[in-house]
């Protein structure tokens, strides 16, 4: 069997007396973007800091490509790239000087540093700013430099803590594009509490609340976490709500105005066929029918209560 890129086993962490992370386990086998979701104070940064070896866990183990971060931290860190919530930039260095410094920290052999810098600035779209002081770059470009330092040693596993925080909408789109590119050949875990970000970038979601894992699944599974119970229909024949009660399984119906109705079921997922059939038999002239899904905000709020 292949070795997972990251394997977390029963991770717990306590700051003095208070547990911030409790019994988290997960395993990632493939490249792509994985979202770590959770409200403020849920434990995301703590988990990420432990994954990257910035913080030593109270209990549990983390293996990066089979290497235990606790017993072989230096070897494990060769495979990890990290962009913390506060990018560790040196504002008075140029982009090139800073990346040279980052490369040395990553033990890239001296002869290979210049090539590594050229490749990473190209990849992150900052070649034209190589000689510029970091303090004179916009927030979006500073974030690109932060991502560049995280991947300069070509790690398989990259952790990005709220990578689009504080950026304007255009910069957010650009940084998301860059993250998608780098995730083609790596596993990227990013933390956020911005739900559209998860929808726009992630393939898989882990959600933590009060330090515990409350959800693990695909974005579609997250989307469908709360059972849809309502279906919207447009009926050109304008039947009365009373007449609609012949639809099998219907709990209640509401007339929303003009030709629009909301139909309520215990579980609305498989009711569309029944509705189409009943509308046909009664000649209600169905012109539109769709399942009303819960928004990601509603799912997030529901999971936050767990
Ligand atoms: N150094 C620390 N000492 C004591 N408690 C801490 C420390 N760092 C974090 N905590 C506590 O641990 C819990 C988890 O915090 P953490 O920063 O990991 O959450 P988070 O999900 O990253 O939040 P945010 O989205 O606000 O960054 C919180 O209750 C926080 O107050």
UniProtKB/TrEMBL annotation:
Annotated organism of origin: Butyricimonas hominis
Gene Ontology MF term list: ATP binding
SMART domains in UniProt: AAA
Ranges where the ABC transporter domain occurs: 6-235
Keyword Lyase: no
Family of the protein in this entry: Belongs to the ABC transporter superfamily.
Record's keyword terms, sorted: ATP-binding, Nucleotide-binding, Transport
Protein name from the UniProt record: ABC transporter ATP-binding protein
Cleaved signal peptide residues: none
InterPro entries recorded: AAA+_ATPase, ABC_transporter-like_ATP-bd, P-loop_NTPase
């Amino acid at each position: 069997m292949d070795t997972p890129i990251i394997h977390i086993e029963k991770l717990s962490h306590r700051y003095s007396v208070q547990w911030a992370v409790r019994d988290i386990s997960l395993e990632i086998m493939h490249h792509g973007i994985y979202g770590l979701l959770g409200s403020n104070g849920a434990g995301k940064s703590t988990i990420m800091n432990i994954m990257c070896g910035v913080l030593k866990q109270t209990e549990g183990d983390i293996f990066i490509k089979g290497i235990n971060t606790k017993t072989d931290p230096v070897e494990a860190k060769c495979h990890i790239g990290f962009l913390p919530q506060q990018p560790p930039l040196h504002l008075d260095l140029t982009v090139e000087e800073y990346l040279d410094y980052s490369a040395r920290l990553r033990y890239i052999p001296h002869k290979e540093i210049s090539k590594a810098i050229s490749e990473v600035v190209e990849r992150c779209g900052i070649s034209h700013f190589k000689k510029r002081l970091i303090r004179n770059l916009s927030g979006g470009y500073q974030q690109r430099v932060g991502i560049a330092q995280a991947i300069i040693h070509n790690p398989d596993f990259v952790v990005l803590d709220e990578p689009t925080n504080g950026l304007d909408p255009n910069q957010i789109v650009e940084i998301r594009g860059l993250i998608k590119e780098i995730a083609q050949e790596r596993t990227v875990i990013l933390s956020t509490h911005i739900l559209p970000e998860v929808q726009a970038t992630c393939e898989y979601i882990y959600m933590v609340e009060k330090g515990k894992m409350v959800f693990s699944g695909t974005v579609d599974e997250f989307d469908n976490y709360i059972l849809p119970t309502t279906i919207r229909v447009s009926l050109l024949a304008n039947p009365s709500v009373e007449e609609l009660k012949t639809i099998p399984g219907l709990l209640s119906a509401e007339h929303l105005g003009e030709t629009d109705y909301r139909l309520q079921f215990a579980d609305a997922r498989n009711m569309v066929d029944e509705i189409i059939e009943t509308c046909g038999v009664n000649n209600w002239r169905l012109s539109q029918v769709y399942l009303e899904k819960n928004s990601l905000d509603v799912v997030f709020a529901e999971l936050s209560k767990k």
